[in-house]
């Protein structure tokens, strides 16, 4: 299928020359959509569901049917890699991911790279199937080595970082060896997604904000290795929570950034980088009148920018009403000629 819609990719290359705003949303598919919950209820286990490429295709397409979006994102998860390396993960309602083992409990935890890429084949099959069924660009994605390491360390979403800090102090070499192993498989994982049809790659460093002075050493260095292993015509977008772009931009070749809700677009929009994100999904709780004004403000500020993509600063959560999202996005797209 030919790409009918290129404005998203053009913006990622800082080359969107028309008055318009490309749009996609972090976690645009998922639990806030009743049509997702319907399919989800057929599976006791999330991984059992996402290992079916035709289901991934359907879940990827659901938000595209509702809203005027300019990109699709493969329906899968960043935790596919620990699962494929022999550490199974379950998602428990109200608690999030729970791993069968963790580095905190078991300092000898081994990641098994043998056959791991083969076990991830379902992601590449889904990518190819989705690509054959959409006419907007497809975003492939991965977690960063650091973020996957943080999940593997705690065996769940981290609450404090004391234990992690003391491990890093005592076992820094061991941490680097996990990070190297993760980097290696992630490079193959994104390469295979690109081969299957992904038009760009987003790297989620959701826990990058846990690091201060060691951010470059423990996270960005590995992200940079992944980014430089990707061919230059495939844009790479970096999402880092609780870190300012100014702390990163001069230390990487990456040119596209998904801002969280704490940074400020207007500090960056006139630089030689592409900015997406920053919009707080809590805004979708506002009245339609306020949403209409917000859409107008976004349009007026950014319609003529060559390097702007509308997106959120964090993912959509189950408390958001999809009809509000639809109202806002319809307003925003109504300004396009
Ligand atoms: O449209 C989409 O973007 C959906 C695809 C997607 C999922 N996870 C599906 C999912 C994407 C892009 C992700 C990324 C992801 N996963 C991140 C990075 C983005 C971010 O929010 O920081 C992270 C940190 C994860 C890890 C993860 N996966 C957690 C913490 C959880 C539990 C709860 C939650 O939703 O946050 C998941 C499970 C998960 N991944 C669900 C979905 C739809 C819900 C699982 C369910 O239905 O039981």
Describe this structure in a few short sentences.
It is built from 13 helices and nine strands.
Describe this structure in words.
The chain has a single domain (19-254), classed as TIM Barrel. The model has no long low-confidence stretch (mean pLDDT 96). It has 13 helices and 9 strands. Strands 1-4-5-6-7-8-9 form a 7-stranded parallel β-sheet. A two-stranded antiparallel ribbon has the order 2-3. By secondary structure, it is α/β, with parallel strands linked by helices. The longest helix has 25 residues, at 172-196. It has helices at residues 7-12, 34-40, 46-50, 53-66, 80-84, 116-119, 121-131, 145-154, 162-170, 172-196, 215-228, 288-302, 322-334; strands at residues 72-73, 89-92, 96-99, 138-143, 200-205, 236-240, 256-259, 274-277, 308-309. Coproporphyrinogen III (CP3) is lined by residues 27-31, 40, 46, 73, 75, 77-79, 91, 96-97, 141, 157, 204, 206, 315.
């Amino acid at each position: 299928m030919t790409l009918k819609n290129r404005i998203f990719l053009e913006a990622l290359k800082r080359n969107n020359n028309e008055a318009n705003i490309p749009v996609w949303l972090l976690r645009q598919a998922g639990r806030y959509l009743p049509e997702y919950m319907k399919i989800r209820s057929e599976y006791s286990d999330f991984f059992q569901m996402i290992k079916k490429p035709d289901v991934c295709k359907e879940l990827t397409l659901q938000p595209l049917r509702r809203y005027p979006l300019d990109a699709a994102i493969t329906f899968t998860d960043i935790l596919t890699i620990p699962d494929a390396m022999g550490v199974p993960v379950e998602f428990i309602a109200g608690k999030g991911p729970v791993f069968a083992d963790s580095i905190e409990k078991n300092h000898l935890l081994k990641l098994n790279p043998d056959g791991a890429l083969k076990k991830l084949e379902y992601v590449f099959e889904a990518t190819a199937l989705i690509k054959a069924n959409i006419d907007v660009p497809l975003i492939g994605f991965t977690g960063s080595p650091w973020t996957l390491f943080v999940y593997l360390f705690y065996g769940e979403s981290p609450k404090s970082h004391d234990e992690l800090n003391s491990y890093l102090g005592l076992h820094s070499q061991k941490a680097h060896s996990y990070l190297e192993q993760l980097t290696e498989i992630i490079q193959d994982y994104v390469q295979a997604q690109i081969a299957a049809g992904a038009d760009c790659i987003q790297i989620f460093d959701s826990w990058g904000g846990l690091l201060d002075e060691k951010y470059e050493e423990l996270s960005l260095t590995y992200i940079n290795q992944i980014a430089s292993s990707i061919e230059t015509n495939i844009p790479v977008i970096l999402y880092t929570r609780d870190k300012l772009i100014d702390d990163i931009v001069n230390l990487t070749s990456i040119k596209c950034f998904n801002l969280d809700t704490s940074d400020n677009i207007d500090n960056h929009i006139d630089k030689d980088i592409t900015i997406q994100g920053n919009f707080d999904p809590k805004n979708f709780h506002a009245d339609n009148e306020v949403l209409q004004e917000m859409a107008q403000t976004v349009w007026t500020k950014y319609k003529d920018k060559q390097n702007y993509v509308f997106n959120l600063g964090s993912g959509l959560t189950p408390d958001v009403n999809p009809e509000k999202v639809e109202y806002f996005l319809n307003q925003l797209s109504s300004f396009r000629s």
